[in-house]
Structures are given as C-alpha cells and as structure tokens.
Amino acid sequence: MSDYELHKGTLRRLKVQKSKKELILEYLSEKNEEIPSYYNIEEEDDINEYFMDLLSENYIEYNNIMYIIENKEIDSDSDIFECEETGNGIYSYRLSYYNGGCGFEEALETALENKVSKRLTKDDIKLNELENLWKDLDLLSSIGEWKSKVKEFKETYNLTDKEAISIANKTL
Question: pTM for this structure?
C-alpha cells in the first residue's frame, strides 16, 4: 500500500570516488557474497539494475559524483523536496512524498535539483563588499554635499551654524 514518507538525512561525498561496479564488488566482498548468475557485471544495464537492487538505499550518484546516504525516515503527510549544500561535499536533505507517486531515489534527485547552496563564492563576497563600498561612498558624498551647502548658506546669507544647517536639511 502506498503512503506518505518523510526522510531527513545527509549526503556525504565519497572521499575516493568509486564506480557503481566497484561499490557492488566491495559490498559483496564485505558480505562474503557473490554476484547472482542472472547479472552480468560487465554490462552497464545489469550494473545499474543490480546497484539499484543492492545499494540504492546507501549511495546515490549525482552529476557523476557518488554520495553516501545517511537517512532517517519520519512520519509525515505532505510533499517536501529540500536539499542544501553545507560544504565539503555534504548535502543535508528533507524529503516528504507519496511513495505511490515516486520512490526515494527520485525524490532525492528532485531535492538535489532544487538544492540551495549556503556557500558564497569569492565573487559573491567581492560583489557584496563592492555594493557596501558604493553605499558608503554615496553616504560620504551626501555628507560632503550637505557640508558644502551649510558652508555656502552660512557665508552667502551670513547665517549662524544652526540656521545654515536647518536650511541645508530642507534643501537636500
């Protein structure tokens, strides 16, 4: 029977990238098991199918990079496909979906496609610094204009500081 599923976890980039075939062989070696005879480990389609059957709950390949899935299933009843990059090749995700409409891997891929990056690039940081510098220069420019106006009113009309400031405030 189909139902809503909520998953929360992280994807951790493998430090040493391995192919699906290498991961299958490594897993079978650890379990002291052999490849079933109906799979041909040299055929790409068989590798993908066997990987799905055997390891799709533990690993996902995204943009040709293999990630370890650290997953926890929680009760829920609404669709959520969230993923954010936390740095160092690690993604944190939260998924809630109706499992009659899609599976875990498809939901995880959707979240990865919708991901939000928390890291700012060097260019983003430089752009923010430049924008702040322009704001500061605009402010300094405005203060400089204001000071010039105060001085001009004071000298031109023989006003006190207080009077010249009051008029400069009204004109700028």
Answer: 0.43
